[in-house]
Amino acid sequence: MKVYVVRVGNVEEEVLEFIRKGLEETFYRGFCVISEHIIEVPSGSYNRVRQQYISEPILNEVLKFALSLEREAGEPCIVLGVADIDIYTPGMNFIFGEAQCPGKAAIISLFRLRPEFYGEEPNRQLFMERAVKEAVHEIGHMLGLRHCGNPVCVMHFSLHIGMTDMKTSKFCRDCMSKLKAMMVL
Predict the structure, then answer these.
(1) Average model confidence (pLDDT) across the chain
(2) pLDDT (tens digit, 9 = 90+) per residue, 15-37?
(3) Residue 109 maps to which CATH number?
(4) Is residue 184 part of a domain?
(5) In the chain, what is the greatest distance between 2 CA atoms, to the nearest angstrom?
(6) Which residues are catalytic?
(7) 3-state secondary structure of 141
(8) What share of residues in the chain are helix, strand, coil (percent, to 5)?
(9) Which domain holds residue 89?
(10) Mean pLDDT, to the nearest integer, of 62-89?
(11) Residue 148 and residue 172: Cα distance in Å, rounded?
(12) Global pTM?
């Protein structure tokens, strides 16, 4: 099975490549491919009152793309959409990402991963590390993992950016065992 990383709107190639490399370090070489396709942000997903985008229609577009890739390739795949917009889901102020669990589609948002969003100095390395953590986290969900109680496991739920910074980009022993049992690693 391959993971395809696809742009949702305008996203820098360098960020996608860093995410691809991070995913291959976590999983295995050849696991991840950057798609040339660009998914447009659905026009009806913007909430003017909140000044954010609701995630569900975007996730649905990523799923449509995943299903079309499967038909073309004739083999299972999963797709991670990467967006640079502020996203939310009902009941949450914002989200860093969302995935089908298990499933074929996920999205991450880069919008709140930049240190400058929090009034800090730009830090490209920190930003990229956060993006990889969120990508690995959402792929973990697509592979069937739930949130983990271990605060340093990549599958730990992040309520705020400090929690993302505290966790690693790696699976804890328990989550790793679950992935191995599913024969993913």
Answers:
(1) 95
(2) 999 999 999 999 887 789 999 99
(3) 3.40.390.10
(4) no
(5) 47
(6) 138
(7) helix
(8) 40, 20, 40
(9) 2-147
(10) 96
(11) 9
(12) 0.95
